[in-house]
Amino acid sequence: MATWTNFAGDQTCAPAAFERPRNRRELARAIGAARSAGRTVRVAGAGHSFTGAVLTDGTLLSLDRLARVVDVERASGLVRVEAGIRLGALSEVLWDNGLAFANLGDIDVQSLAGAASTGTHGTGVAHANVSASLRSIELMLADGELVELNADVDRDGWRAARVAIGSLGVITEVTLAAVPAFTLDSVETTAPIEETLDRFDELVAADDHFGLFTFPHSDLAIVKSSNRIDSAPRPRPAPLEWFDDVAMTNYAFWGICLLGRARPAMIPALNRLTSRLAGTTRVRDRSYRVFRTPRRVPITEMEYAIPRDVAATAVRAVRAVAESERFDVPVPIEVRVAAADDALLSPAHERDVCWIAVHQFAGLDFERYFRAVEEVLIGFGGRPHWGKRHFRTAEELRGAYPEWDRFAAVRRRLDPAGTFTNAYVERVLGPAG
User: Fold this and answer.
1) Which of 133, 265, 334, 392 is the most exposed place for a label (fewest CB within 10 A)?
2) Judgement on whether residues 290 and 363 belong to the same structural domain of the protein
3) Beta carbons of 181 and 94 less than 8 angstroms apart
């Protein structure tokens, strides 16, 4: 393998060695060889991150061969799996056993370990991020030792390992808590953005899962409300699903973005048109099918978690930045919510949050726009999503996390030699050791 590239094609590295272990023994051997050669070690999940979290000139590991479902306890909902399994594949297995994730984001191609380690989330006031569903983590350290971390064994290590950007060791297996399988009734429609923001607290409390998109220069929001129902799934006919989720949501929108990139002066009108054409779509299907949405339009993204009680004000402030004459933004702002959790470096650590994501279409300047939005969201006490672009350093981030030093102590203990690091990790977490 000469190079590794992420899904977006904007993060690339040339590792000295690329290993795809099939079991713990081969994994330990690969880590040992890296240490003997003086190389650092990083793990590539699905590569579904916009950051440099994976990049290395040392040893790069893929866990795509460590993707088995080890055990399913239907009665308790506890499921033991290898860390390389993809969320979509695991969702299918869970459903076949009468189980499901309580919540998921709109992308399900990530590896379970990668999604948890970066704080990946869905939306819903009662639902925390993916890492909060984990009940135990098996971690391989730099010397090949396997340690099991959970609330009863090494609680500090457990709270650190759930969201650690791969900085403590290699996650090999996890036990997660699933819920009984359920059907979601989802309605996506448009509503006035100002009215939606005025009623934001009411709306997010009324639905199991609520989120919205809003285009700069448009007075509409595209809102999606999903709720559990006691009935069997009724999947859309395949041609209709393809038309809604692929032809319109992706290819037609892609074409509009290309036109906006070619003629930036048209972007405000195009955004208003796109919002008006969104229409209304209703889906009643298996939960994981409703959560996911194909995303094929080439973009880059930054996302911040802010305290939920300032959500409406913050969204208005971000819209004002996006509508500035300084920026050409043909893509929407996304708004979701999540419950607090206790992982030491979770962006939702000990507070309910509103997630605000900004995007930029490929080929358009993203950095000036993202930096301007970031400055606004820092003012609201924002914490960045660990798998998406941001520009902050460990020195700047330390004050945003009450238990930052506790995480640092766990990192020194579990990876004292700094085996599991790279430039991105050191930028956002500080030097190892």
Assistant:
1) 265
2) yes
3) yes
Q: Which domain holds residue 189?
A: 183-384
Q: For the segment 233-284, what is each residue's pLDDT rounded down to a tens digit? A: 999 999 889 888 888 889 999 999 999 999 999 999 999 999 999 999 999 9
Listed residue (197, 384, 378, 359) closest to 305, CA to CA: 384
Distance set, CA 169 to CA 291, 307, 417, 431 (Å): 30, 30, 11, 15
CB neighbour burial string for 29-63, b if at least 16 within 10 angstroms, e if fewer = ebbeebbeeebbbbbbbbbbbbbbbbbbebbbbbb
Query: How many Å apart are CA 237 and CA 398, to the nearest integer?
Result: 50
Strand partners for 284: 185, 234
Nearest CA among 343, 415, 345 for reference residue 139: 415
Structure tokens at 322: 């996006």
Distances in whole angstroms, Cα of residue 130 to Cα of each of 120, 156, 215? 6, 19, 27
92 and 225 in a single domain? The answer is no
Per-residue pLDDT tens over the stretch 108-158: 999 999 999 999 999 999 999 999 999 999 999 999 999 999 999 999 999
Q: Which two three-digit tokens encode residue 251? A: 């290819």
Cα dihedral: 176, 163, 114, 429 (round 10): -170
Q: Give the CATH number for residue 268.
A: 3.40.462.10
pLDDT, average across residues 49-58: 97
Question: Is the pLDDT confidence value at 1 over 80?
Answer: no
Residue 309: inside a domain: yes
Are residues 315 and 206 part of one domain? Answer: yes
Q: Computed from CA positions of residues 362, 354, 195, 321, in that sequence, does the dihedral angle turn out positive or negative?
A: negative
Beta strands, E only, 143-205: 146-150, 170-177, 179-180, 183-192
Token representation of residue 108: 């399900």
Residues 6 or more apart in contact with residue 379 via CB below 8 angstroms: none
Question: Is 65 strand, coil or helix?
Answer: coil
User: In this structure, are 280 and 313 located in the same domain?
Assistant: yes
